[in-house]
Amino acid sequence: MKNFYQLVLSVILMGQGVAQEKKDSFSLPDAINYAVKNNYTAVNASSDLEAARHKKWETTTMGLPQIDANVGYQNNFKIATNLIEIGGQQMTLQFGQYNSMDAKVTLNQLIFNGSYLVGLESAKTYLKISQNAKVKTEQEIREITTKAYGDVLLAEESITIIERNKVILEKTLNDTKQIHKNGFIEEESVERLQITLAEINSGLDYAKRMKVIATNMLKLLMGIEVDNTIVLTDKLDTLAMNQIDLALLSDTFDVKNTIDYQISNNVVESNRLLLKLEKSKALPTLGAQVNLGANTFDSRFTMFNGDQKWYNYSNLGVGLNIPLFSSFGRASKTQQAKIAFEQAKTRLVETEQKLKLQYQKAKSDFEYSVAQYGNAKNTLQLSERIEKKQQIKFKEGLSTSFEFTEAQRQLYTAQQSYLQSMVEVITKRAALEKIMTK
Length: 438
What we know:
Elements: H1 2-21, E1 24-26, H2 28-38, H3 40-61, E2 66-75, E3 81-86, E4 89-94, E5 99-112, H4 114-181, H5 187-222, E6 230-232, H6 236-243, H7 259-280, E7 285-298, E8 311-321, H8 329-395, H9 401-436
Parallel strand pairs: 1-6
Antiparallel strand pairs: 2-5, 3-4, 5-7, 7-8
Helix pairs in contact: 2-3, 2-4, 3-4, 4-5, 4-7, 4-9, 5-9, 6-9, 7-8, 8-9
């Protein structure tokens, strides 16, 4: 039996270990979709949209029937005395009861109000603003998540390449030390390689630190706790190759389909409604009220007795308010709203021109990143051949250690430039897609 419990405990502990080592794997599309749903800003944007829907209904209900119930009780400690004159003689009388209660139901209905009608339009615009804000947030999250994903892959690839360079250099350094011991090479050659190895170790340490930072940044953008472990399934070179699709450059760009233009247009619409609101304040307001109630009176508190007499009453009231003169205050507010409306239209034109310029820049940046990727790839191939030739010459004593280490540094620079060029293709493509997204 003891062995059985030990076996069960071992299985439980193994299960916990598996659970702790469980990792979430994400491709770039998976990471983007996850971030759009779980990013902290995205979650709040969804909440803002939900609040806007409730705000729209709140505004709508202002023109719907409003029903209130009211119960009031009054106790007169001392009934008020009134002075009257009858036949030339003054008399004092007290009217009323020591206890009174009133219960009524009131229905209020707005029949016409210009400001309310404008408010209904404004509620729709407010909802649209929140919807566009959510789309804008999602677009930005897609772009920055793509960049963060690329930064993690860059750090991972940098570590892989630097570690490979380190292994090769350590072997070369050991061979060089042996040649130096045999007296066929100067000590300076060994020292140069040792300096290069120290630089590689420093670069490797930096790359590992950057991987941790880049990974945590990606987790933050995706709405994942920093302590959790994630694994990226895409490879940098494969991802970059998939992004090199120049067909995107031939797609038609319509500035009016961009979310930034629509947001700016929302501002114009909002200012138009504000102008309309100020004008509507000169219109009359018409409302109606219906009261249904009952009251009772007594010298003692007998309101809840079964035989208590209650007196019913009901009435209908209609009110019309007509603004006549405001000392030109309304006219002044209307002019201010009109100026703000014209300014919003001017900013819309400015936004349109800026978006066209941004598209041209994003398109040019993407084309340039693709060209730079090709150049970096060719440069890397040339640097690899040069370094390999210099390594052979150095071992055969046909070149100096200075020439060999310079070839190595040139190779290391070319490797990093190649990795960076792939990240640039990915991020520039994301920036172009962002501005072209409808």
